[in-house]
Amino acid sequence: MARPNATLHLFQKDIEDAEKAAIEAEQEKLRKAEEAAKKAEDAKIAKAEAAAKAAESGSTAPAPKSEGATSSVNWDAVPSRDITLFFPGTASIEWIHGREHGGKRAFTKGDRCIECHDSETMDMGEKIVTGEKLEESVIPGKRGSIPVTVQASYDADNLYMKFSWPEGSHAAIPFADGGKMDPANQVKLAMMFGSDDVEFADRSGCWGSCHDDVKNMPGEVDDATIKAYADASRLDTSGGITKYISESRTDIEYKGKRGAKLGGWDKLKSEDEIKAALAGGGFLDLIRYEVGTGKVEDGYLLDERKMSGGQGATFTSNLTDGIWTVEMTRKLNSDKAGDVSFDTDGVYNFGFAIHDDFSDSRFHHVSLGYRLGFDKDEEGIEINATKQ
């Protein structure tokens, strides 16, 4: 007769085996779904490339809509990385540190988000976009994820990046006039670059700039509170509180203990401290491109989002046979404050977002944090820019 402890041990082992089998089955299901999505995307991209080549050879195939000059990069010779962007809802850096996030302990110990979630982003986006978690303002029919093919190259002067993804069907936004938050722009592309000097950038890319107390988030600061703040004149609050990073604050509340409000919008460091952070690389370089209007903005995140005209980057875009393609050309070196100057011996943190289907504000699709290197085809470098 088996001893009670032995029976209990066998029972616990059966439960663990069942849980493991369930997890493996779910992972296999996700893998097959992503594989199917990737095959469909590859087919669309191949069709688009064939149409483009036919147009170049004088065929009657329709020419793509294009803005700006085309780069001279031979993209056929450049490796690609497939990245699935997902709808994040109200997931902030404070939420990442909170009880509802199962990976908070791993994150605080230094694990990168992609180590747990790189193969789960499609499933994560579906749960959030449908309101199962982290989203109360549901947009019926909005896709939860976007599969994007990313390529990077460089020469003596420039970094070149190419992004390709399938166009989605329109899902009217119920809380926006005409169902579109930004009617002038069906698509916008934004990207951030930063060094390891920025807290959390090595783990989560640009996620450290997304706080619970910024515009359209659960803890959004109201106008009366902003006006009552003694140092409000130091921030451009005309559109609410914008993204910021911890290098500009004396304190940020991540866990909300004893009812404390999350975030730290009103905990500004001195002007001299913020200037020192900017000079020392403690910022996130931000570039934004509006495909509809052709507008390019170049700026950075530190105490707030500061944007200006796009002196440092140019873009081209086209939509052909249901595939969006956007190419960026950006100078490697810059003497402008808030610009990352790329040393091709270095490695940089990178994240990007797509405002799809006339969306705006936080209603975008985002990437996890990835690492960009230059001819560094090695572990830990997800996007490897190859020299032309």
UniProtKB/TrEMBL annotation:
- Which UniProt keywords are given for this protein, alphabetically ordered? Electron transport, Heme, Iron, Metal-binding, Transport
For whether the record's keyword set contains Electron transport, the answer is yes
Protein's organism: Alkalimarinus alittae
Domain Cytochrome c: from-to ranges: 98-249
Segment Disordered: which positions? 30-73
- PROSITE patterns recorded: CYTC (PS51007)
Q: Which Pfam families match?
A: EB_dh
Q: Does the keyword Iron apply?
A: yes
Composition-biased stretches, type Basic and acidic residues, lie in 30-47
Superkingdom of the source species: Bacteria
Q: Know the name of this protein?
A: Ethylbenzene dehydrogenase-related protein
